[in-house]
Design a protein that fits this description.
mainly beta; 8-stranded mixed beta sheet
Length: 254
């Protein structure tokens, strides 16, 4: 059991950028704060993904791993198995940088290309044992002209988002690119719910309007069937959609 005071001091900060997105690469920096001194930190890539009950080897797409502590000192990184790294000698802060590769657009994997990034979190971000309940901040450095869509809670800056813990973070995919967005609300019994459709496609604004109309009818049918909408986090539900010639057919609930 982690003491409440110690748990409150822990935090996880992610940054992701896309300096070589045309080569399917992203650069990730994750900073774990409040790591107990005198202990090693185990950083892992997930071997499973929400809604997909099959093993995955996301770590195979991770390379150029390096680590430092809060004073900028280089730390030794040891690969302890196919999906985990051990870092020792830190000062309570461990900062890990790595490159991750992905080119598959669906609900389970990671896709980065010349036009966009579709991030399934377990396929993209390391996590650390013992830091699962720490609050999380994510900063996205997106290329010019790319917009961000996610169910994560927005912070004060437009490219910063938060999650209360690791479980919530891993279940919150992100879409980044030249997105067309449609938003509408429903008032059922005095409770207002907001719906957002974030679309990446090669079509027109008119075609995006047509798709949004069909999605809205599905939402209306759901509410009609159950009598009310679900209790969405932050009162909002976000649809992330990729309709591209190079995308596979797949859908995932989150």
């Amino acid at each position: 059991m982690i003491p409440a005071a110690l748990s409150a001091q822990r935090s996880v900060e992610y940054e992701i950028s896309f300096p070589k997105h045309d080569q399917h690469e992203a650069r990730v920096i994750v900073t774990f704060r409040g790591v107990p001194r005198g202990s090693g930190l185990e950083a892992h890539m997930s071997r499973s993904s929400p809604g997909r009950y099959a093993p995955s080897n996301f770590a195979k797409n991770v390379y150029d791993v390096a680590a430092s502590d809060g004073r900028g000192r280089t730390l030794s990184v040891n690969r302890i198995d196919s999906h985990a790294w051990s870092i020792t000698g830190h000062d309570g802060t461990v900062r890990i940088g790595y490159t991750v590769w992905g080119d598959r657009i669906d609900g389970t994997y990671l896709s980065i290309d010349h036009s966009h990034a579709h991030l399934n979190m377990p396929a993209t971000f390391m996590f650390a044992r013992g830091m699962e309940e720490a609050p999380i901040t994510l900063t996205i450095h997106q290329p010019a002209g790319w917009k961000i869509a996610t169910q994560l809670a927005p912070a004060a800056r437009a490219n910063v988002f938060t999650a209360p813990n690791m479980q919530y973070f891993l279940d919150s995919p992100i879409q980044i690119g030249p997105l067309m967005t449609r938003t509408w609300t429903r008032n059922v019994g005095g409770r207002i719910s907001t719906y957002r459709m974030s679309l990446h496609h090669l079509g027109t604004e008119s075609e995006a309007d047509s798709l949004a109309s069909m999605v809205r009818r599905i939402v209306d049918e759901e509410i009609g069937l159950w009598g009310e909408p679900a209790q969405y986090d932050y009162g909002t539900y976000t649809f992330l959609m990729d309709y591209l010639p190079w995308a596979g057919g797949d859908g995932m609930e989150h």
